Amino acid sequence: MSIDLSQFFEVFFEESFEGLDVMEAELLNLRPGEEDSETINTIFRAAHSIKGGSGTFGFTSVSDFTHVLETLLDQIRDGRRKLTSEHINLLLQSVDCLRAMLSALQNQSEPDASESQKLKAQFERILGLSSSEEQASATAQAAPEKQTYQIDFKPHAHLFKTGNEPLYMIGELAELGDLDIEVFTDAIPVFDEFNPEDCYLAWRFFLTTSSPTTAIDEIFEWVEDDADISVTLCGGLFEDEAEESIASSPEVENAKPSVKPTPEVVTAAAEKPLAKANAAVAEAKKSQDNASTSIRVGIDKVDSLINMVGELVITQAMLSQLGEQDMTESTVAALQEGLAQLAHNTRDLQESVMRIRMLPISFVFSRFPRLVRDISQKLNKQVELKLLGEQTELDKTVMEKISDPMVHLVRNSLDHGIETPEQRIAAGKDPVGTLTLNAFHQGGNIVIEIMDDGQGLNTEKIKQKAIANGLITEDDELSQEEVNELIFMPGFSTADAVSDISGRGVGMDVVRRNIQALNGSVEVSSARGVGSTFTIRLPLTLAILDGQLVQVAEHTYIIPLISIVESLQIDVKKVSRVGKNLDVLRLRDEYIPILRLYDIFNHDGAIEALDKSLLVVVESDNQKVGLLVDDLLAQQQVVIKSLEANYKRVDGISGATILGDGRVSLIIDISGLVKLSGLRKPGSQELIIEQNAEAVS
Amino acid sequence: MQTGTALQSEFNQRLGLGEDHDEKQYLTFLMAGEEYGVDILSVQEIRGWTSATAIPNAPDFVKGAINLRGTIVPIIDLRLRFGIDPIAYGPLTVVIVVAVEFKEQTKTMGIVVDGVSDVYSISEEKAKDVPDFQESSSSQYVDGLVNVGEKMVVLLNLQKTLQI
């Protein structure tokens, strides 16, 4: 019996990683001396199922390690041992270690044993003599004696016809231990008699393994009746035995047990596993890239989806029934009603499907308690982490991409924001700093705030640094916001010493770029001595947006509705020309630069007269600009498709979509467009109204 | 002995020893009276010309993007790409949709040609190198020239041709 267990590997790994997350979260809740038996139980259960699973799948390194961990937890649970902070630290380290081991196994590579051995030794030291027995048994299990088997495998000629492939068996044998292969080619007939569907080869293997004979038997189980197989234990040292057995078998072509592939057939056979190994490596790489390709979906979401599909089927049945009838006025009315129903169903279905991709942001937040604990320990700071709005839902893709920038911002707050306890006491503050992560929905956006009650941004220091770096000059008058913006410039860092936590000055601009790549924005507000708040704004989903269709000459473009402030007809009296060819509209108290879309996109045939076209005022990066279009068309939800996938990045365009009639329409990227228009100095947030460039034309 | 050689070739192929005559199939198309060939394995489909959505600030040979069953596919006019005078698109104008492997990813693109011609099996060794005229900028897009019967076929290098 050999069920292919590998099909369950993915599930096992996923569950184990979840178990580790649970362990980590619960461990962080533990306080020495006030342990809660329920918490310990939860940790114990998670560890236990990882141990059980890894044992089943034969990952002995993991199960052995989990075993000692479990022993300690068991003693704490039974009250035989008091929980100390040393225990918690050790357990947290083991969680990391297990995670590393499991991801190594997931990528089909051998986990690094040195770390686990070190931790295991520490566990054993804590457990002391009381566990010497188990220790002994564990070591015995870990390194059973290796033995060498001689396996003669002579398949009958019809082996291939039974659907068996010796190469796979050899591969499986090789996984058991060190394998030396000899091949007997003397049965191969002359070419004219050669039948490509017959097997003419026979093998002798020398396998040095710690696995029991049953493992070998299992491999050959399926071909028992189609081949002559003998497995004999060589015993003693491998080298001598092998030499001896070869000496006594004159039909062996190769005198050495190591494969020297003289006959061509052997070369071919030897190359195949190599190719297989390469493929495995490639696969492992792939699996690393898309680390999480599956999501867990609440059953209620699936149920509502099924309901909706049910309704859709009913509507479809109704419509097809109508289609079979003769067209009268009443059927037309019914048809229209049916179509309206269909539109309704489709939208509901679309929303439900999108909801499946939505996950609570706690998936990202959950990694921070550990991170904050580790970093604050390292920095000798006392920090309390508050998590708010953990149930706020967010698209999975957005979530994956936001987690790194968030880690960076949190590290930054811990390193630069929150002061040491001494400094805090001196400033009259609570020695324990507070870091708050807050997430909530606002319009079609999700807002994530990272707040600390630390020292705030040092405006003077930032200014001096910026002057030193040549980002601004001494004479530049900057508002508080503009100074704060400077920290997002490339190559900017005010940390006096470069630490491994932050301060290399490659951070904030990358953070901003990553967030902008998600169509989001990040800003900072800060008060000296009180703290600073980083606010990240992100679209809820990357896949769909509400768009305003606009016409420019014969082209249809889409402007994201979320960035539109208003649309209006231009009162030419309020337009003044600045510089060579930039028009500015005075709108209430603001001056709005007018960007002519046809000009920026190089389209002929558009309406050029300002009073005959329409102006769509949009906001990007806190600046308003007006886009000149010929006409406003419909508003609709559009599914975002990549233009880059088959073409390349186009400046001023964030993607494409397919309209109802099947045509492609391009989605305008407002901040890219502003850059393209030359209205903004590279790297500056300020619009160049005074010295508008030729680039507009 | 026909079966013998067939068996031998099959045998060689199974052992990965390679064929002694490795022929590739090429789909050829016509453009300005010349016949061009592309590796048939990269051809996804052949379709009629449909109008494309213009891409702003694209080079003139990029005619725009079309919707190919939900995927956005850019359309390249090969005449303009090679600096040949353009002709009006008619009912016979065809778009060959090809998948081209670039370094980072495989891209699906459409090329506009005058008409599809034939499929030939061509041995790569028979292809002659393009005479190296410094002034002929288009020659960088060509892998080689080959004679099929009386005709000469230009084998295109799609990677270079469609590198935008």
Give a topology summary.
The complex is a heterodimer of chains A (697) and B (164).
Chain A: H1 9-29, H2 37-56, H3 60-77, H4 85-106, H5 113-127, H6 132-142, E1 147-155, H7 166-176, E2 177-184, E3 202-209, H8 213-220, E4 227-233, H9 238-247, H10 264-289, H11 299-324, H12 329-356, E5 358-360, H13 362-365, H14 368-379, E6 383-388, E7 393-395, H15 396-417, H16 421-426, E8 433-442, E9 445-452, H17 459-468, H18 480-486, H19 508-517, E10 521-527, E11 531-539, E12 544-552, E13 555-560, E14 564-569, E15 575-578, E16 582-587, E17 590-596, H20 597-600, E18 614-620, E19 623-629, E20 631-639, E21 653-658, E22 664-668, H21 670-676
Parallel strand pairs in A: 6-8, 13-22, 17-19
Antiparallel strand pairs in A: 1-3, 1-4, 2-3, 5-7, 8-9, 9-11, 10-11, 12-13, 12-20, 14-18, 15-16, 16-17, 18-19, 21-22
Helix pairs in contact in A: 1-2, 1-4, 2-3, 3-4, 3-5, 3-6, 4-5, 7-8, 11-12, 14-15, 15-19, 17-18
Chain B: H1 2-14, E1 23-31, E2 34-39, E3 43-48, E4 62-68, E5 71-77, H2 78-81, E6 94-101, E7 106-113, E8 115-123, E9 142-148, E10 151-156, H3 158-161
Parallel strand pairs in B: 2-10, 5-7
Antiparallel strand pairs in B: 1-2, 1-8, 3-6, 4-5, 6-7, 9-10
